[in-house]
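Z., the sequence and structure:
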Amino acid sequence: MATKAYTAPLPTQAKVVDLNVQLMCPDCKVVPPNISEEFSSGDLVCADCGLVLGDRIVDTRSEWRTFANDEGDDPSRVGSAANPLLNGPQLDTVISQKDGGSGAARELNRTHGRVTAVKGERNLLQAYKDISAMCEAIGLPKLIADIAKQLFKRVEDDKLLRGKPNESIIAACIFIACRQEGVPRTFKEICTLTQVPKKEIGRCFKVLNEAFQETKVQTMTSEDLMARFCANLRLPMEVQKAAVELTKKAKELGTLAGKSPVSIAAACIYMACNLYQQQRTTRDISMVCGVSEVTIKNAYKHLYNERTKLVDDRITTKLIEGLPAP
């Protein structure tokens, strides 16, 4: 019996689907589309009808311009932004520490860091971190921190304070930066912040102030501290202005000659508060200004004795006589 040959059915031809995305002008609908990229304006325009199909396109062509001052390659267009506070090319390669938990990548990262570390850069980075943390702790703006970092780098480059601990240099740099930008802080505030003795900060400050002649700071006055102290005590503007006027007249008359600016500011604030019926005790002012209550009372005693000469004529005699006796 002859067997009939079995013929398998031919597979049906699969339907081909075009998955390509084709950009077409919705007005012209010309195939192929005539679309031009105008990188100068960042627009995608139909060349036939002028319809703008897209904006803010990215120029993917090669960059032939250079912004370097001298001839040669332009390093500003390669890698991340350069940090002027660090030395070296700053284009290092970093090995990732993630390798699935074997630990080999972490060891490679440490070894690579030791080999490629620039001499002195670790010390600078740690100092910059400390300066940023200290400035943030007392609410100083980023500008003050940047100026303090620049001063610290100049000290390191010029070897001005060789042998001094970094904590003392950082304290002096923050102190000078505050003075330069008109937001002075007292020695006691910087001592509390950095845990560096006052004498040590004073020595470093004296050396740096003489070395940096172009950025030499002036002596701190009571008027420089008045706005911050009054703001912390939540006093109205009229009390602050009265305290500033008292300070100026006391200097003209020599009433508080030999007193520190902080003591003068605290005593004038206390007297202005009593003139304008603002209930602030010597303890409140002492906690804000950082001087003892005895110091405030001793300075206020001199102001009280000269009250008729110091107080403005606009203040009535009744308020002047109502000042508390020291």
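The two ends are 138 Å apart (CA to CA). The longest strand covers residues 35-38.

Let me know what you think.
H.
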